[in-house]
Task: inverse folding
């Protein structure tokens, strides 16, 4: 069996019109019923009012003349009345074409109880459909009979019929207007859905450059806003994937390039030793060269693994309060021999009692990388390590008197495998400063570089005090 598909546009129109039609029908029925009851009630009250006056006239000494005048007045209004006794015999008028009074026992009970009997529609006891009332006629405390007044309902029926016609006309006009509004509103809603459908189709094809009109008017506006956010996030994810893929290619190219030289050197030296192509006095130098190149390869692998751990948040910091002079002295002791080989001097400038809040091992790693970088580009110069306090931060500075960095290269030094001076065969890979950047970020700190070609470089690290870190964690 084929599944019947109905467009949302027609569903909206059908739902709008069906709701309006049902509402109109219910309201019309209730309104007509209310008007009909109101008309019959008004007629009954009118007849009862005349009946009260007739009863008053019956109590007068000479009721005949008054009753005759009432009969003339009521005939002009197409109202008939009679006075009857308990045997349903007509007492007044003595002659006329009014049918005999035939009341049920329940109706007689109402009159006997002294209440007014009201019948809005009667189609059986008279020649035509009438509304009639019967009032008890009591004389000297004794029930004589009653006074019955009857009026054809043709006038009331005609009024209700005219009302129904007017109501039907109003309903048709209202439905026409409702249909027009429903068409406009349905077209508006469907067009907004169609825009979203086209946007979804674009996204499914990989085109995330969509921008749906947003508004605060209804849920469509909220949906468009969320849709745009989703598209933006998908766009960012796509760009990030592309960046990661480019970085992966670049990484493979960089690693291949960096590893090719040491591997070529190692292979050449080993081949030379195996074939006795290296002189005896050069063998020790060759072995030392193989050892150095092997250490380079190990450092490359370790630094890359460390960098990836930091990037993927696999590194947990063990923060503590560290004496600044103790930290700087450790760096000085570890690297002073390496600095001396290039004629450099490492100096410390700090005041006792200065405290740095961070991970001791990771800060040693950070400063070691920075100072090694300074040693690499400084010959016969000074490398000064400073630590001092600011209101919200502890500042560490590493300043050298080396060759410096070109201004356009300062932002590039944080990239993986980047070398500020490619002409120098330093043997250092460009991973160290990338790791520095990541570790300082894990400390919620900041690292900046100032350099001038030929005059040296200064690295400035700002680490927040312990109180500020704890406040940020609580927030």
Result:
């Amino acid at each position: 069996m084929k599944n019947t598909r109905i467009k949302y546009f027609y569903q909206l129109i059908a739902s709008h019109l069906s709701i309006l039609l049902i509402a109109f029908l219910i309201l019309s029925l209730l309104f007509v019923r209310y008007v009909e009851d109101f008309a019959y009630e008004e007629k009954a009250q009118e007849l009862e009012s005349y009946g009260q006056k007739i009863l008053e006239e019956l109590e007068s000494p000479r009721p005949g003349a008054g009753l005759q005048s009432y009969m003339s007045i009521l005939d002009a209004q197409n109202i008939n009345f009679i006075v009857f006794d308990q045997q349903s015999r007509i007492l007044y008028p003595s002659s006329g074409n009014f049918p005999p009074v035939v009341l049920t026992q329940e109706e007689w009970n109402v009159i006997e109880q002294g209440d007014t009997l009201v019948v809005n529609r009667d189609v059986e006891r008279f020649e035509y459909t009438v509304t009639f009332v019967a009032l008890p006629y009591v004389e000297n405390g004794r029930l004589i009979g009653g006074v019955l007044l009857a009026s054809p309902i043709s006038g009331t029926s005609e009024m209700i019929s005219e009302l129904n016609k007017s109501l039907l006309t109003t309903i048709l006009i209202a439905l026409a207007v409702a249909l027009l509004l429903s068409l406009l509103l349905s077209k508006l809603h469907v067009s907004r859905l169609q825009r979203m459908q086209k946007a979804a189709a674009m996204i499914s094809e990989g085109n995330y450059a969509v921008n749906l009109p947003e508004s605060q008017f209804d849920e469509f506006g909220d949906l468009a806003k969320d849709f745009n956010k989703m598209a933006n996030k998908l766009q960012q994810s796509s760009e990030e994937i592309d960046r990661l893929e480019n970085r992966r290619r670049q990484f493979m190219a960089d690693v291949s390039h960096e590893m090719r030289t040491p591997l070529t050197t190692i292979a050449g030296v080993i081949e030379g030793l195996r074939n006795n192509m290296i002189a005896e006095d050069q063998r020790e130098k060759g072995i030392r060269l193989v050892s150095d190149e092997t250490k380079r390869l190990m450092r490359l692998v370790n630094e890359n693994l460390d960098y990836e751990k930091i990037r993927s948040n696999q590194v947990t910091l063990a923060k503590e309060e560290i004496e600044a002079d103790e930290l700087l002295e450790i760096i000085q002791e570890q690297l002073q021999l390496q600095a001396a080989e290039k004629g450099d001097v490492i100096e410390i400038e700090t005041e006792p009692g200065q405290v740095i809040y961070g991970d001791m091992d990771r800060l040693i790693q950070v400063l070691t990388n920075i100072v090694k970088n300074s040693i690499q580009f400084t010959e016969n110069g000074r490398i000064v390590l400073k630590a001092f306090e600011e209101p919200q931060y502890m500042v560490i500075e590493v300043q050298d008197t080396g060759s410096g960095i070109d201004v356009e290269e300062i932002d590039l030094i944080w990239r993986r495998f980047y070398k500020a001076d490619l002409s120098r065969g330093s043997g250092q890979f460009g991973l160290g400063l990338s790791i520095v950047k990541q570790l300082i970020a894990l400390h919620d700190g900041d690292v900046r570089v100032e350099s001038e070609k030929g005059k040296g470089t200064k690295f400035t690290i700002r680490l927040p005090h312990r109180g500020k870190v704890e406040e940020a964690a609580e927030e």
Remarks:
- The first strand starts at residue 80 and ends at 85.
